[in-house]
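seq:
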Amino acid sequence: MGYRDYIPQEGTKTIQGHIQVTIDHRSTDCRAVSSVLSRVGDKWSVLIIVLLGDGPHRFNEIKRMVGGISQRVLTLTLRGLERDGLVSRTVYPTVPPKVEYELTPLGRSLWKAVEPLGEWARSHIPHIQKARDKFEKNEKTKG
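struct:
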């Protein structure tokens, strides 16, 4: 089949008889989706979204619950989540100031999507650890 025999896909326009150009809005959508997924797809953001699913928490509470996150990374992650409208930050006029973070309605809708993933991870930790141990054992016998 030559290029002149090409049957265009739906959504494809023929220009000047044989140049095929696909008109597809998905390429623009992919860039936007990629931008959103880069925020919500990193491990710290997902953990924080899952933790805030049970209500508002203070910075140090979140830091303790997440474990292994530096203060700087937590600050940057919370700022990013706040910037994207997923988390709200409330400062109470006390001495010292009390600051709480909680999910916005948009963040809560994300929580509904990632909570099952968190639940799956929690329930499969023993299976995954067993597979990792087996893999490591096999790698040691190869080398």
